Amino acid sequence: MTTRILHFVMIALVTACSSSEPTLRYAVPNVDAGARIGVSVSTVEVRAITLPSYASDEEIFTETAEGALVSNPDLLWADEPSRAMSLNLSRTLSEITRARVAGEPWPFEERPNAQIDVRVEEMVAGNTGEFRLSGQYFVTSPSGEGREHSHRFEITTPYSTEGGAQSIALARATAVRDLAREIANEGL
């Protein structure tokens, strides 16, 4: 009797799981990097971007009219956000500068001329249709020969609130591109 009940419970669980909606994962698209920017270094290491806890989660968060951050467990980023943003920043810096750019760990024998450390304080798809990315970045010189400094950044990118997660993903890509351009112009 117990085996038969257990059998029915297992069938019910399998049926419930198979009839649920699939979890959707959203990749961040590549956006045009724009015109080249001259920099004073030839090699750059991008350290892993530090994100607030809600932004480092795989669930996509949005802001409510009351200012609360909410997520939908069925709408997920396709890649871990810190990793994906670090790779995106590295690729964009490589495209817009003539520098050899790579993420950590540094894959080359010779140390990089500069290291970039980005610490994000806010990464929010706002309820008004603005994606906000703000924080601080640091440019250091592992060899001690270059100048070291820090800059605050506040980037706002419009997105369609009706466009859903795809619109948020495009806004995130655009914001990271804009951050790369700011770093190249002011930090390198």
Q: How would you describe this protein?
A:
With about 190 residues, the protein is of the alpha/beta class. Helices cover about 30% and strands about 30% of the residues. It has 4 helices and 8 strands; from the N terminus they run H-E-E-H-E-E-H-E-E-E-E-H. The strands form 2 sheets. Strands 5-2-6-7-8 form a 5-stranded mixed sheet, with helices on one face. Helix 3 packs across helix 4. It starts with a helix and ends with a helix. The N terminus is likely disordered.
End-to-end Cα distance:
73 Å
Biggest sheet overview: 5 strands, mixed
Cα-atom radius of gyration? 21 Å
Strand content: 25-35%
What's the overall geometry?
elongated
User: What is the number of helical segments per DSSP (H or I, 4+ residues)?
Assistant: 4
What is the H/E order? HEEHEEHEEEEH
- Looking at the chains present, what oligomeric state does this protein adopt? single chain
Side by side, the strands of the main sheet go 5-2-6-7-8
The amount of helix comes to: 25-40%
Kindly report the average pLDDT value: 89
Structural class: alpha/beta
The number of distinct β-strands equals 8
pLDDT < 50 stretches:
3-16
